[in-house]
């Protein structure tokens, strides 16, 4: 023997040394589990988000420069609609909340006498303190009740005090205010009914390139018609509800 000694490394039984392949497999499984958990967390977060508000457009956001107004108003889904048909063929629908008086019926003559209104060919639609008087006259080309707009400001001022809508494709404007029936029948009033007409038909290029309006609705089934809004009180501003319903009635007119 040369005197050199060797020391052996002891081996402890029961302990396995992990290999590199096994470590990589473990990491892959761990990443898959984490991915699944993350995905589930995102789904739960989305489901618990509050609903997004739906944007709305108010009437004030609409294009106010369009001279031909879109139909507005409505008779109401819960109201019973009635239809009036005149012998000339003029007709319209109206809600049952409005009372119609026909001047051709003797049973209705009292209200025309009360308000000193011509009942021959006349109609009254009444609700609360407001009523609309409609009368027809034989078409007469010499009868004038109209106007022209001298400039765009004049036209804009006219439209601002009225509700615009369509009747059988034509553009019409209904005044937002009315006339006190007491003031109209006052002995001191020397103005005729044509001076307070409430419904006007817009006429493009009426005179020499100027737009204008006719206050007599002319030559409809051989008749001219005029519409006048009255108030039973001194308050001549028509309520929004009554104005909307009147507009809706006018939109159903068939000449």
The average pLDDT is 80
Overall, the morphology is elongated
Provide the low-confidence segments as ranges: 1-9, 53-66
For the terminal residues, how far apart are their CA atoms? 137 Å
How much of the residues is beta strand, in percent? 25-35%
The biggest sheet, with number of strands, parallel, antiparallel or mixed sense and barrel status, is: 6 strands, mixed
Give the domain tally.
1
Percent helix = 10-25%
The tally of strands reads: 13
Number of H- or I-type helical stretches: 5
Order of helices and strands: HEEEHEEEHEEEHEEEEH
Helix and strand composition category: alpha+beta
Radius of gyration over C-alpha positions, nearest whole angstrom: 40 Å
How is this structure best described in words?
By secondary structure, this protein is an alpha+beta fold. It has one domain (67-251). The protein is 23% helix and 28% strand. Strands 3, 4, 5, 9, 12 and 13 form a six-stranded mixed beta sheet that branches. Strands 6-11-10-8-7 form a five-stranded antiparallel beta sheet, with helices on both faces. The longest helix has 28 residues, at 20-47. Mean pLDDT is 80; it is low at 1-9 and 53-66.
């Amino acid at each position: 023997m040369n005197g050199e000694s060797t020391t052996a490394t002891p081996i402890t039984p029961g302990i396995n040394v992990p290999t590199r392949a096994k470590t990589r497999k473990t990491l892959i499984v761990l990443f898959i589990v984490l991915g699944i958990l993350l995905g589930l967390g995102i789904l739960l977060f989305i489901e618990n988000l509050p609903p997004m508000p739906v944007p709305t457009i108010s009437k004030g956001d609409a294009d106010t420069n369009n001279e031909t107004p879109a139909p507005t108003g409505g008779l109401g889904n819960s109201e019973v609609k009635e239809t009036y048909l005149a012998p000339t063929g003029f007709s319209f629908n109206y809600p049952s909340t409005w009372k119609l008086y026909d001047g051709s019926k003797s049973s209705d003559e009292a209200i025309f006498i009360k308000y000193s209104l011509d009942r021959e060919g006349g109609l009254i639609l009444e609700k609360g303190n407001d009523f609309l008087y409609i009368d027809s006259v034989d078409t007469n080309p010499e009868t004038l009740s109209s106007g022209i707009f001298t400039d765009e400001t004049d036209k804009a001022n006219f439209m601002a005090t009225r509700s615009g809508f369509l009747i059988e494709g034509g553009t019409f404007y209904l005044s937002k205010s009315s006339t006190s029936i007491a003031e109209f029948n006052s002995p001191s009033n020397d103005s005729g009914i044509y001076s307070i007409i409430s419904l006007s038909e817009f006429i493009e290029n009426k005179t020499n390139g100027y737009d204008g309006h006719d206050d007599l609705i002319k030559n409809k089934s051989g008749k001219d018609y005029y519409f006048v809004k009255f108030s039973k009180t001194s308050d001549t501003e028509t309520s929004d509800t009554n104005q909307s319903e009147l507009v809706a009635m006018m939109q159903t007119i068939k000449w």
